[in-house]
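This part of the workshop introduces the protein records we will be handling. A record pairs a protein's sequence with a compact description of its fold. Comparing a sequence with its tokens is the quickest way to learn the format. To make this concrete, we reproduce a full record directly below:
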Amino acid sequence: MTATAWVREATVSTELPDRVVVAVDEWQPVAAYRAGPQGRPLYLSDRGIVLGPAADRTAVLDIQGPAGAEPRVGQAPLELPLLTALVNIQRQLPALIGQTVAGFQVDGCGNLTLVAGKGWRALFGRVITPEEVAALKDKLAALKSISTDVDFNSPDLDYVNLMNPSEPAVKLKSAKPPATPTPSPAAKPSPTPSVVVQPVISCA
């Protein structure tokens, strides 16, 4: 019975005259994990182990991992320290900045994005090494530090870049891209194409 993923502990005892009592303690899911946006949600225990299909992923933390093969029951698609950090952030964010967590996304490069309940995103950067996971504490503090200047309830808020916690950057949907200088009639056109900076997180 203990081989069943949902069973945390099972004990068997006897009672006179001829009764056998089986007590089963089950794991409680803390998150629903999906392999890519189209993946089937799977419950994860607080040990990070896949328990089985998630009947209601809205009741637990939603985590979208990289697209790929669906993890099997008994496997751990996320490192336990990272899962623990994500669950803690979900629990702390309402008290920290008055916002809820709709879910997290981890891409194929190990970059973490928080999706807030209001729709804006927080870009945390890579969370592959233990040091990078530990750095989430400083990045969360950086998010708190700008809460007096940023309206986290605004529908105009696009994302907050926390990859450098000492210099958090805010992007509004209404923000205009930098204007391209108009060359004078006598000036020769530059062969260099204009570049529009996008919030793309590289794997480097």
